[in-house]
Amino acid sequence: MTSIAILITVFNRVAKTLACLDSIRNAVEDGLVPFSLRVFLTDDGSKDGTADKVKERNYPFPIEILQGDGSLYWNGGMINSWKAAIAFPEEYDGYLWLNNDSVILPEFWKMLDQADTFARGKYGKGQIYVGSTRDKLTGKFTYGGFDFINKITLKDRMLPPNGEIQECQCAHGNITFVSKEVVEKTGIFTEKYEHGGSDHDYTYRAYKRGFHNLILPQYAGECENDHPKDGNRSNFFEMPLKKRIEYLKSPNGLNLHNALLFQKRCFPWRYPIIFVTGYFKAIFPRTYHRLYLRARGVKR
Fold first, then answer.
1. Could you say which of 32, 55, 188, 227 has the lowest number of CB atoms within 10 Å?
2. The domain that contains 93 carries what CATH number?
């Protein structure tokens, strides 16, 4: 493996974007990156001068800045970056999904190279390599690979790094590498998702098609888990019913559309269950949340 396209989409949060890109710069300047890199960054209508500030940094790797109109959200922005990378004259050995709120740790690049060598030796071709992230302050696991341990409730078990390469069924896309062999068979993200969800869809469907999601042995980066632990997103429990229904459907809210799409594509028999429980959640949010935690074995 010699060349990598890094795929990023951003909407404001310029400080996080620069910190993310700076972490790549530091590794490159320290001689820790054994690949050629090119970043494809979709700026989806940022109002904070993201594109200009990125250009001002003079990074030691090329950055293709692509413009969106503010309607792409995460999924559309990543598709936009991915398509641009595929259309670019240079051919890449794979594509690194990178969230702009993630800071890559120096050891990631060596682990990525080792994982690719391992995969090609064991499976004869490149696979998907999942970089786990931890909270900068607590050091606790935030995002990475996981397995579904109950196909009825979709209860999952997160798989933090344990010093060895692990396999998983599904993964977050904060710092995840997809080899070109996977893309040749699986394609890129579907355009049907609004905002998030494609990372779970893509990695799970690749797993079902016989590819391997390989978790890197150590943490690859740092990223805060900004999802509320009590499930009360944006004070959902306190909203009037009309607002809860709107939030249920919003791409920036609970996004029922994406939840239903994931079921349809990956667990189709759960579609009617999720449709009903989605509206039950909006009408009786506290009751739903108690039942949800109980079903997943979460202690409060």
1. 227
2. 3.90.550.60
**Residue burial 100-118, b: 16+ Cβ < 10 Å; e: rest:** bbbbbbeebbebbeebbee
pLDDT in tens, 33-76: 999 999 999 999 999 999 999 999 999 999 999 999 999 999 99
Q: What is the pTM of this model?
A: 0.93
**300 in a domain, yes or no?**
no
How many domains does one find in the chain?
A: 2
Q: Are residues 14 and 93 in the same domain?
A: yes
Whether residue 260 sits in one domain with residue 113? no
Alpha-carbon torsion 11, 13, 15, 17, what sign?
Answer: negative
What are the tens digits of pLDDT across the range 266-281? Answer: 999 999 999 999 999 9
The residue range of the domain holding 280 is 233-295
Model confidence at 291: pLDDT above 70: yes
